[in-house]
Design a protein that fits this description.
single chain, 103 residues, mainly alpha, 3 helices, elongated
Length: 103
């Protein structure tokens, strides 16, 4: 009869200890729960910002479509008009976040 462990048995024990350690170690951080909550809050804020950006894009697309249909101008001209209006609005408000037309 053999005494001791086989290599496979030792590797299984080491793998199990690694799994247990990966489950336990994060909970040893005193701020673990606060970090989890903050992470979820940050994720929700990112989703809201993404939705706002998508809505702004859709609104801009609708305005461009309406301008091209009603005024008979090209999409490029409509975008320039919208960008000029945005620049004027930002200049009045003192904002430096101006959307530039990429040519």
């Amino acid at each position: 009869m053999q005494k001791g462990f086989t290599f496979i048995e030792a590797m299984i024990v080491i793998a199990l200890l690694g799994v247990l350690a990966s489950l336990i170690i994060p909970h040893l951080d005193p701020n673990f729960e606060q970090n989890q909550i903050q992470s979820k809050i940050d994720y929700q804020i990112a989703i809201i910002k993404k939705q706002e950006a998508e809505q702004q894009f859709k609104d801009r697309a609708r305005k461009v479509y309406k301008m091209t249909r009603e005024q008979g101008i090209t999409v490029e001209q409509a975008l320039r008009v919208l960008d000029d209006n945005l620049e004027e609005k930002n200049a009045k408000n003192g904002s430096h976040d101006v959307l530039k037309v990429v040519k």
